[in-house]
Every structure is written in C-alpha cells, then in structure tokens.
Amino acid sequence: MEGTKPRTASSIGMFDMLKGAGMLTIVFAHTAELYPMQAVSGLSLTAFFPFIYREALMSAFFIASGYGFRKRSIHKCIHQQLKSLLKPYAYTALFTCVLHFIIHYKTFQYLPGTIGESIKVTGGFLLGLPHTAKYFGQEFFSCGPMWYLLALMVGWVLLDVILNIFPERYVPWAVAGCVLLGWGASLVWELPFCLIQGAVVVPYLYIGFLAKKKHLLDEPLPPKVFAGLLAATALIAVGALATRTTDCISLAEWSLGPLSIFLDGAAGLLFIRLFMRLSRGHGPIVHFLEAVGRRSLNIFCVHTVEIIAIPWYLMVAKFSAQPVLGMWLQYAISLGSIWLVCELLRVRRALIIRFFPAQRRTPAVHYTSRH
C-alpha cells in the first residue's frame, strides 16, 4: 500500500525527526542552563549533564547537512551559501537588534544603557561572534544560535575548496588538517565570523557527503563499526566526567582536545542511525517531531530572537527560590512564542502565495505569424 513503504536513505525528510528532537533539546538546554542546580558531586544538573552530548547532537546536524552536499565550482558554492544562509542570518540579526532595543528600553527606561547593550548585540552579529568576546577594546555579545548558520556556511565552502583542490585519496588528510588548523587557531585567537567553528565542522560535513556517496546509511552497520561508534559515544561521557567540562563548538572548547571533535562525529553518526530507525514508525510522536524538524530553520531564527532580545535573567531572578518551576515555565513560554511566530510565518507565506501568485517566467520565443 502506498504510504506504508519504509523510508529509504535517499528520501526527502529522512532527517526531520532528528532535527525536530534536536530543536526541542536545544531550546530546553538553553533554558536549563540559566537555572543552575547543583548535583551531589558539585556538577550542575542543568548546566553540565544536559550538555555532555550537546556537540554530538550538533555534529549530527552537520552530518545531515553534508548528506545534501554536492561538489561544484568554488564560486557557485559561495554564491549558494550566501543566498541560502546569509539571508536568514541577516533578517534574524535585524529583528533581534530592533526588538532588543525596544524591549530593554521599555523595561528599564534608561536610554544610555539600552544603547550600550544594543551596540554589543549589533556588533556581535556584524562580527559573527559565536560567543561573547572583546574586539577593539569593546565587548560584544554572541550572535546566539546563529553561529550554526555561519559555521555551516564556512564549513560548506571549505569542504568544496578541499574537494576541488585535492585528489580524492588526499581529501581525508586535508579534512583532518582543516580540523587541526581550526582547533590550533582557537588556542591563540578568537576569530570572527565563526571561522574556527567552520573549520572544525568540515569532517562532519564530509561524513555526510561520504554517507550519501557510498550509501553508508542504506545498509546495517558492520558489528565492529557499530561497536566503535558505541565506544566513542561512551568515551565522550567519560571525558566530560573526568575533566568536568563538556565539549562546546561555539566556545571552541573540547574536553579531550581534537580527539573530542572526532568522537563527537562518531556519536553524531550513531544518533543519525538511531533516529532513522525510530522514524520508520508512524505514531503521533514521530509525526510531531517530523513536523518540528521541517520548521528547524525558522525555529533556529525565532529562538535566536527570543533568547537574545528578551531579558530572561529577570525571570531567573524572580524564580531563584523555585528554579525548577521557573525553568519549565520559561521553556513553555519559549516554545509557545516560537510556535506562534512560526505559524504566523506559515500563514504569511500561504497568503502571499494565494493573493500574489508568482508569475512563471517563460523563455522569450519568437513565433512567426501564420496566415
């Protein structure tokens, strides 16, 4: 029967469930870290444990993106990335800066302070900062979750450059060298425009590229490969607990140095295999997560606006005596606002299509009149 066939590894939307679960997890993690709750060992239940596999999840996002990678000329690749990723980044930056100014001025009624904070936010977007940093003696805030779009754009271009320059047998070495270069640069300087992050995610994009090229997601994993992925996933937790730190691409921090970068990639590939198996189901949870995943770009953008423009720290202070209640309440408000804006965007698009249908361009063909 049509509609009951299992989804193949080349189907459109094959990663929607992964992206949906990932987006809900990201919003929750960004909320939970604002409400630190200490465990017995002194590690935070909300700012440490939820982040142990944070970068494994992000690597899965990049691997899924790399699955759609296609080698082309460097010029065409740059043009494509600027068109597809820089545009939503620019719109998000504009709305975030404007709303940040309006909300903070209405909240605190202090214009000099509002201008100063808004300059930090605007500068962070203009410099494409993955985390708060100082440039020219001035502190600027990060661009929030939008670092992902910039890193994806930079990484995509770097991988295309590597594939165009190096013979195929040298590509893996070039990818590894790109990672080490990005990691080494993070030790000495905070590069703007997420250049470090873009270099570090190249192997994830390359894994996705190879997965499609060699049909790695079509067949079951060999037992030894599966065991290796499980071991890498376990080693991530061991490294985090031993060093009491978690990997963070945006902060350019890895608990086991460059080894963690490759471990996160292995765990990300395992996550993809897991969610591809789960997505074969047809239950309401699967459909819900897939629906969320199809709106992942809009959710990224709206989440960036709300997490930066809204002074959530006021709510944190108000619920300091009840952090669990405050955390779940903020999470509900964040998801509600994200859902509302995403629905407005969907309705807006539907109205535009209905009332302003795009005119199809037809080639200029000269016909000779018939008499």
Automatic annotation (TrEMBL):
One of its GO terms (biological process) is enterobacterial common antigen biosynthetic process. Pfam families: Acyl_transf_3. InterPro entries: Acyl_transf_3_dom. It is found in: Cell membrane. Residues 15-342 form the Acyltransferase domain. Belongs to the acyltransferase 3 family. One of its GO terms (molecular function) is O-acetyltransferase activity. It is an enzyme of class 2 (transferase). Its EC number is 2.3.1.-. This is Acyltransferase. The chain crosses the membrane at residues 12-31, 51-69, 89-108, 146-163, 170-189, 195-211, 223-242, 254-276, 297-316, 328-345. The lineage of its organism: Bacteria, Bacillati, Bacillota, Clostridia, Eubacteriales. Keywords: Acyltransferase, Cell membrane, Membrane, Transferase, Transmembrane, Transmembrane helix. GO terms for cellular component: plasma membrane. Its main location: membrane. It is a multi-pass membrane protein.
